[in-house]
Amino acid sequence: MSVFLSDGVRSSTARFQLKNKLFFSYIKAAGDNTCYGCTKPIETVGELSIEHIEPHMGRAEVFWDLENIAYSHLDCNKRRGYRRPLPDRPVPKPNLIHGRRSTYVNRGCRCYLCAESNSKYSKAKYWLDKCSEV
């Protein structure tokens, strides 16, 4: 059975919001409210996101490492996304324009920039096709 406060908010939700507000006030008081991604100040508790500098990829030792934690805007953290480490990617081929889907498809370059461009195109095409079916 859920317990509600007088303003209609569940007590569990209220506790969570209170912890976030306290946490943000401590971060702001310590001067740590600078975004890791864009270096602009984080102004509100709703903007705050905790980010792993090195993606943990399910590794507990990286997830719990406090030296691997940074604060960022929620939007900046989402933009960075869940990315794989890059060392397993091929190096860019010389004398090509990288970051274009055409370089990936026509020239066979599989560097990070070209692969990312092809991935974005494929996702956009999928959703355009999906929306046109409706």
Report the sheet-strand fraction: 5-15%
Average pLDDT works out at 80
Spans of at least 5 consecutive residues with low confidence: none
| Structural classification | mainly alpha
Please give the radius of gyration in angstroms: 21 Å
Q: Based on DSSP secondary structure assignment, what is the total number of beta strands?
A: 2
How many distinct helices?
Answer: 5
Major sheet size, sense and barrel closure = 2 strands, antiparallel
Structural domain tally: 2
As laid out across the biggest beta sheet, the strand order is: 1-2
Structure description:
The chain has a two-stranded antiparallel sheet. The model has no long low-confidence stretch (mean pLDDT 80). The chain has helices at 11-30, 60-63, 74-80, 101-106, 112-133, and strands at 48-52, 69-73. The chain is mainly alpha-helical. It folds into two domains: 11-80, no CATH class; 86-134, no CATH class.
